[in-house]
Each structure stands twice: as C-alpha cells, then as structure tokens.
Design brief:
Layout (H helix, E strand, L loop, with lengths): L5 H16 L4 H15 L19 E7 L6 E7 L7 E2 L5 E7 L2 E7 L8 E8 L4 E4 L7 E5 L6 E7 L8 E4 L6 E4 L6 H5 L1
Antiparallel strand pairs: 1-2, 2-9, 3-10, 4-7, 4-9, 5-6, 5-8, 10-11
Helix pairs in contact: 1-2
The structure holds fe (iii) ion (FE).
Length: about 190
C-alpha cells in the first residue's frame, strides 16, 4: 500500500508490539488495544480520502493494515446515509472506534433453528467511542449508520484477517446461518 499517514503507522507499530507481547491473551489485547484505538480515533485528520469514500449502495470496508501473520487487521468502515450490515458474526475479537458521525450496534442471540433471532438491545456510539466484541461473550450483531443524511466512518480492529475469514450472516426471522467471506472494498489496492 502507498503512503500511510503517521497516526496509523504509529498505531500499527504499537498494536503489533501488543500482539507480540500478549499473543493469545485476548483480555489484555482488548484492554490495552482499546486505549490505542481510542487514541487513534481521538483525532480525525489522518484517514486518506481514498479510504473514506462511501458507495451509494453498499457500506465500504477498506483494509488499512493486515498483520503479516494474520494476527490482526485494521479496517475503515464507511457508511453511506442509512446503510447497515446484515446480522453477522466475526469469530474473532474486535475493537470498534468511531471516527466520524455515529454507529448503532445491535446485539443478537441466535434462536433455535427456524425461530427468530433474539434482540439483546442496541447501543449508539458517537465520535471517539471505542467498543469491544468477543466471540467468547457473543459476537452476533448488526451495525448501521446512526444517520440517514450523512456519512459515518469507524475504524475496526479484528483478531485476524477479517476479510479472509469464513463466517456467518443470519436471517432475522429464522436464525438461519449462511457462510460468507467479506473481502475488502479495496482489493485492487491490496493485491497491487
Ligand atoms: Fe461486525
């Protein structure tokens, strides 16, 4: 990838050190990683324009950094007005920091086969907020732009190369899981 801004460079360097030091210790990675991400999203002057571009129809996921050993990845999520994910899981830990605008995060529990997903409530997150999610405590959720009239951007860190992980989306009415691999919106840049 071409020129990465300094803030992100520093974040990647520090996060790499963190996973070097605490490999396998998810609790400690989330605890310390949360502070690193809070610092990264405390200012909004570093994300390159090309990684902040919304799409008229689809929310965008731009890979900002992939750890060479797939221990973590950093992604910018760019939400057009009113855009949302399907209900999905990650299978790895995640940290979510809001850079611009806001996100609504709704948690779900998978129901018995054929029965609806159970809502566990939602949380609205504003700029500078950092949340963590873990498959250990339940990572089935749906995320949406809090706003119908503007772009929102969040920075996500995952405990693996999230765009390459086989995981699931779930149908709200029946809890039916479907396997998917998300990929990234900037695949051409990654492979270049
Ligand atoms: Fe998610």
């Amino acid at each position: 990838m071409e020129e990465t801004p300094n803030c992100l460079d520093r974040f990647v360097r520090d996060f790499t050190q963190l996973v070097d030091d605490y490999s396998g210790d998810e609790t400690e990675i989330l605890r310390q990683g949360r502070k690193l991400l809070a610092d990264l999203v405390s200012r909004d002057d570093w994300l390159p324009e090309r990684h902040a571009q919304p799409h008229p129809q689809y929310y965008q996921q731009y890979l900002l950094h992939a750890d060479p050993a797939d221990r973590f990845s950093v992604v910018s999520f760019v939400w057009g007005p009113g855009q949302k994910t399907p209900i999905h899981n990650h299978t790895v830990w995640a940290l979510i920091g809001i850079l611009r605008g806001g996100e609504r995060a709704e948690s779900f529990e998978v129901g018995s086969p054929g029965l609806p997903m159970r809502s566990l409530g939602h949380e609205d997150l504003g700029p500078g907020t950092v949340e963590s999610i873990s498959p250990r405590t339940g990572d089935v959720h749906r995320v949406s732009n809090l706003y119908e009239d503007r772009v929102s951007i969040s920075i996500h860190v995952y405990g693996g190369n999230i765009g390459r992980i086989s995981r699931h989306v779930f149908e709200l009415a029946t809890s039916t899981p479907k396997t998917f691999i998300s990929g990234y919106s900037n695949e051409s840049e990654i492979s270049a």
